[in-house]
Amino acid sequence: MGPKDYYYNQFRTDFAEFMAKSKMAHKHPDEGVYIPIQDLSEANLSHVKTDAWHTMRFLYCLAFTVLIDQVMYTYFKNDYAKFQSITLYPKIEYGISNMNARPWDITQRAGGLTTFEKFAAFFIQDFKEFFETQTFSIANWAKVKEVMLNDKDICFGSFGQILCNKLSAA
Known about the structure:
Blueprint: H1 3-21, E1 26-28, E2 32-36, H2 52-75, H3 77-87, E3 91-93, H4 103-107, H5 113-133, H6 141-150, H7 157-169
Parallel strand pairs: 2-3
Antiparallel strand pairs: 1-2
């Protein structure tokens, strides 16, 4: 199952099962669900541990949803409430600290840079289509792409370099 099929046909189900197992997930008013990164444990991910591909797909989709949520929250605060109401994307935090975890800390749990490249290509296209079809007061695809490319934390490390290289070419 490729990135698009998994994301649109299985990810939400896998995420719901993960949330049912999470003991420490909690909601913050007007910001959505926060999940401690420690909840990405063997026990809580047992339903996606059926094979390495399933685990990678789940963690990569989770990382990209966390990434775009962080981009919107950080750079487009005026549009965040609308974005959050459409996507309902979670936040992963370090402990119960209200400090957002870096998306690449999620992807490192999966490994597989070749598979990550496929997910990066898919999510770049998906983000582009999303921002071309949704109307926000400030955010649009060109601005989102620009802030991502200029954010040193996004473009950091092997995963970040892959994403930013693909993003530059998009």
